[in-house]
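thought: fold this chain, then report.
action: predict
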Amino acid sequence: MPVIPPVGPQVPYDPLEYVLKVLRVILNDMNVSAAGVLLTDNKPVVLPLINMAYRTLQEDLTSNGVETFAKEAILAGMAAVPQSVTDPAIQPYIGYDGFFDGLNIDASPVLPQDMIGPLRLWERRSGINGRWCEMNRANDGLPSGPRGSQLRVWDNREDGRIYFVGSNQVNDIRLRYNEYLPELITVNDPVRILRCDRALAYKAAEIFTEPRSGDSEKSSVFASKYQYYLDRMCERTARRKQRGNHRRRPYSWGAHGGWG
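observation:
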């Protein structure tokens, strides 16, 4: 099981209220009051607007290779395929709602509820402290063949299930995945992306002005500003990666014996 790190100082995230103040500055909504007129905290449009921008920012950062949302979890106790299941066409899977071993659906393990997509998987026999062996992702569907003691290969499909050939022993999975952040519910909620206030505010300003007649030029300016601050955020990851050698893995990486 994963070791829980000690509790230390909190990450210095900005509260949503600060981002809303930046948004009011951008939209000149502070002329009468610092609390705004069009976008006061209690206006029904505020939270849906900011969450639309929040989701877009997360997607854009992930698409640009920013690893802010990479997370890991241990999925313990992946049951062996029952001996009565001999048809290789039957593929066990793990989903948000449970684990299918080829015959039965168990309540656990389950995929993390904040997972938006898997990145890499490792496996080891359950109940030991041995090293993790990386699994291969199937490029064109799972191979067909006899089941062994290892899962070895995985396939992600149906937007929320990871399929396996299955194994004849209980295994644990180490899963690296992209998470999505929870919705912002109150103005006191932390915005869990460091120094994203300007990018998030400009995206919200773009969304707010886009459907309003006569504001198309403003919306275009806000879109350009959003892109500028998004690029600056992406530079953090780009500069760090430039300190090492990185190249794309070939499709045949780690494949052996027809697996992968």
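thought: worth noting. Residues 216-241 form the longest helix (26 residues).
final: tokens above.
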